[in-house]
Amino acid sequence: MNELEFYKMLYKKADSGYGAVTDLLPKVQDEKLRHDMALHMEGYRHFSHMAKEQLTAANQKAEKKSPIGAIPTRLGMMVNTMFNTSREHIAELMIHASNASIMELQRTMNRLEEHKGTEEAVTVCQRVIDFEQDNVKRMQKYI
Protein backbone atom coordinates (compact mmCIF):
# COMPACT_ATOMS: atom_id res chain seq x y z
CA MET A 1 0.00 0.00 0.00
CA ASN A 2 1.35 3.42 -0.89
CA GLU A 3 0.72 6.70 0.91
CA LEU A 4 -2.04 7.88 -1.43
CA GLU A 5 -3.95 4.62 -1.02
CA PHE A 6 -3.54 4.98 2.74
CA TYR A 7 -4.88 8.54 2.79
CA LYS A 8 -7.81 7.57 0.54
CA MET A 9 -8.65 4.71 2.90
CA LEU A 10 -8.23 6.95 5.96
CA TYR A 11 -10.53 9.60 4.51
CA LYS A 12 -13.28 7.06 3.79
CA LYS A 13 -12.92 5.37 7.18
CA ALA A 14 -12.87 8.62 9.15
CA ASP A 15 -15.85 9.97 7.25
CA SER A 16 -17.72 6.70 7.74
CA GLY A 17 -16.84 6.60 11.45
CA TYR A 18 -18.06 10.16 11.88
CA GLY A 19 -21.35 9.24 10.21
CA ALA A 20 -21.78 6.12 12.35
CA VAL A 21 -21.30 8.02 15.60
CA THR A 22 -23.61 10.76 14.33
CA ASP A 23 -26.29 8.13 13.73
CA LEU A 24 -25.87 6.68 17.24
CA LEU A 25 -25.75 9.95 19.14
CA PRO A 26 -29.52 10.71 19.08
CA LYS A 27 -30.16 7.37 20.80
CA VAL A 28 -27.91 8.20 23.75
CA GLN A 29 -29.43 9.73 26.88
CA ASP A 30 -26.36 9.64 29.15
CA GLU A 31 -24.66 13.05 28.94
CA LYS A 32 -21.16 11.77 29.79
CA LEU A 33 -21.40 9.11 27.10
CA ARG A 34 -22.66 11.72 24.62
CA HIS A 35 -19.66 13.89 25.47
CA ASP A 36 -17.21 11.02 24.97
CA MET A 37 -18.87 10.10 21.68
CA ALA A 38 -18.61 13.74 20.57
CA LEU A 39 -14.86 13.61 21.32
CA HIS A 40 -14.62 10.55 19.10
CA MET A 41 -16.49 12.37 16.33
CA GLU A 42 -14.03 15.27 16.56
CA GLY A 43 -11.15 12.85 16.19
CA TYR A 44 -12.72 11.40 13.06
CA ARG A 45 -13.25 14.91 11.73
CA HIS A 46 -9.58 15.73 12.38
CA PHE A 47 -8.27 12.63 10.59
CA SER A 48 -10.69 13.11 7.71
CA HIS A 49 -9.46 16.68 7.26
CA MET A 50 -5.82 15.61 7.49
CA ALA A 51 -6.29 12.90 4.86
CA LYS A 52 -8.15 15.28 2.56
CA GLU A 53 -5.32 17.81 2.80
CA GLN A 54 -2.75 15.15 1.87
CA LEU A 55 -4.83 14.01 -1.10
CA THR A 56 -5.45 17.56 -2.29
CA ALA A 57 -1.72 18.30 -2.10
CA ALA A 58 -1.13 15.27 -4.34
CA ASN A 59 -3.85 16.40 -6.80
CA GLN A 60 -6.04 13.48 -5.76
CA LYS A 61 -9.74 13.60 -4.96
CA ALA A 62 -10.94 12.61 -1.51
CA GLU A 63 -13.90 10.31 -2.04
CA LYS A 64 -16.43 9.41 0.61
CA LYS A 65 -17.88 5.96 0.95
CA SER A 66 -20.82 5.68 -1.43
CA PRO A 67 -24.26 6.05 0.16
CA ILE A 68 -25.12 2.56 -1.04
CA GLY A 69 -21.93 1.20 0.53
CA ALA A 70 -22.96 2.71 3.88
CA ILE A 71 -26.34 0.96 3.94
CA PRO A 72 -25.17 -2.32 5.58
CA THR A 73 -23.47 -0.40 8.40
CA ARG A 74 -26.45 1.84 9.01
CA LEU A 75 -28.88 -1.10 8.91
CA GLY A 76 -26.70 -3.03 11.30
CA MET A 77 -26.71 -0.15 13.75
CA MET A 78 -30.46 0.28 13.44
CA VAL A 79 -31.00 -3.39 14.22
CA ASN A 80 -28.43 -3.37 17.04
CA THR A 81 -30.10 -0.40 18.73
CA MET A 82 -33.73 -1.17 17.95
CA PHE A 83 -34.47 -2.75 21.33
CA ASN A 84 -31.45 -1.78 23.38
CA THR A 85 -30.13 1.77 23.64
CA SER A 86 -28.59 1.39 27.08
CA ARG A 87 -25.28 3.14 27.61
CA GLU A 88 -23.63 -0.26 28.11
CA HIS A 89 -24.85 -1.48 24.74
CA ILE A 90 -23.90 1.71 22.89
CA ALA A 91 -20.44 1.65 24.50
CA GLU A 92 -20.06 -1.99 23.47
CA LEU A 93 -20.91 -1.12 19.85
CA MET A 94 -18.35 1.69 19.93
CA ILE A 95 -15.71 -0.65 21.38
CA HIS A 96 -16.36 -3.30 18.72
CA ALA A 97 -16.09 -0.71 15.95
CA SER A 98 -12.86 0.73 17.37
CA ASN A 99 -11.33 -2.73 17.80
CA ALA A 100 -12.16 -3.63 14.19
CA SER A 101 -10.60 -0.36 13.08
CA ILE A 102 -7.45 -1.04 15.12
CA MET A 103 -6.99 -4.42 13.45
CA GLU A 104 -7.48 -2.97 9.97
CA LEU A 105 -5.14 -0.06 10.68
CA GLN A 106 -2.45 -2.40 12.02
CA ARG A 107 -2.64 -4.40 8.77
CA THR A 108 -2.43 -1.14 6.84
CA MET A 109 0.60 0.02 8.82
CA ASN A 110 2.33 -3.31 8.18
CA ARG A 111 1.69 -2.91 4.44
CA LEU A 112 2.98 0.66 4.51
CA GLU A 113 6.18 -0.50 6.21
CA GLU A 114 6.59 -3.45 3.80
CA HIS A 115 6.26 -1.15 0.79
CA LYS A 116 8.59 1.47 2.24
CA GLY A 117 5.83 3.98 2.90
CA THR A 118 6.89 7.36 4.17
CA GLU A 119 7.58 7.75 7.85
CA GLU A 120 4.86 10.41 7.95
CA ALA A 121 2.18 8.00 6.70
CA VAL A 122 3.29 5.32 9.17
CA THR A 123 3.21 7.89 11.98
CA VAL A 124 -0.28 9.07 11.02
CA CYS A 125 -1.47 5.47 10.91
CA GLN A 126 -0.06 4.90 14.40
CA ARG A 127 -1.77 8.07 15.63
CA VAL A 128 -5.12 6.77 14.35
CA ILE A 129 -4.50 3.44 16.09
CA ASP A 130 -3.71 5.31 19.32
CA PHE A 131 -6.87 7.38 18.87
CA GLU A 132 -9.01 4.24 18.52
CA GLN A 133 -7.31 2.60 21.51
CA ASP A 134 -8.05 5.70 23.60
CA ASN A 135 -11.68 5.44 22.52
CA VAL A 136 -11.82 1.84 23.70
CA LYS A 137 -10.47 2.88 27.10
CA ARG A 138 -12.96 5.74 27.30
CA MET A 139 -15.89 3.47 26.43
CA GLN A 140 -14.89 0.69 28.82
CA LYS A 141 -16.06 2.73 31.81
CA TYR A 142 -19.63 2.46 30.50
CA ILE A 143 -19.84 -1.34 30.27
Structural notes for this entry:
The protein has helices at 3-24, 31-57, 67-80, 87-114, 119-140. The protein is mainly alpha-helical. The protein has one domain (3-140): Ferritin, CATH 1.20.1260.10. α1 crosses α3 and α4 runs antiparallel to α5.
Termini separation comes to 36 Å
The CATH H-level homologous superfamily? Ferritin, core subunit, four-helix bundle
User: Number of helical segments?
Assistant: 5
Q: Could you please say which CATH topology applies here?
A: Ferritin
Q: Percent of residues in beta strands?
A: under 5%
Report the count of strand segments.
0
Q: Report the order of strands and helices.
A: HHHHH
Largest sheet: none
CATH architecture designation: Up-down Bundle
Features:
143 residues; 79% helix
List the helices and strands and how they pair.
Layout: H1 3-24, H2 31-57, H3 67-80, H4 87-114, H5 119-140
Entry summary:
This protein is an all-alpha fold and 143 residues long. The chain has helices spanning 3-24, 31-57, 67-80, 87-114, 119-140.
